[in-house]
């Protein structure tokens, strides 16, 4: 479930312009790692909380506003 959440949040956040490109790109390898390696590699379970923390800090610092120059601007 964490892999699906990471992947979907990265894609939706990028398409809406809420997330910067680097954070969206960071979410996709995190999702793939969670999907394929989480059961075999013990430290892989920490990827989701780390990615969630980075995502949360970004949203708090930007206030959830879209970046300037996106399609959401009038």
Question: Would you write up a description of this structure?
Answer:
- The chain is mainly alpha-helical and 74 residues long.
- The chain is elongated, with a radius of gyration of 13 Å.
- α1 packs antiparallel against α2 and α2 runs antiparallel to α3 (47-62).
- Helices cover 64% and strands 0% of the residues.
- The model has no long low-confidence stretch (mean pLDDT 84).
- The N and C termini lie far apart (36 Å).
- The chain has one domain (2-62).
SSE order, one letter for each helix or strand: HHH
Distance between the termini: 36 Å
Query: pLDDT below 50 for ≥5 consecutive residues: which ranges?
Result: none
Class by alpha and beta content? mainly alpha
Strand content: under 5%
Tally the helices: what do you get?
3
Mean pLDDT: 84
Number of DSSP strands? 0
Largest sheet: none
Radius of gyration: 13 Å
From the spread of the alpha carbons, the general shape counts as elongated
Q: Total domains, how many?
A: 1
Helix content: 55-70%
Give the tags.
74 residues; mainly alpha
Describe the structure in brief.
With 74 residues, this protein is an all-alpha fold. 64% of the residues lie in helices and 0% in strands. It has one domain.
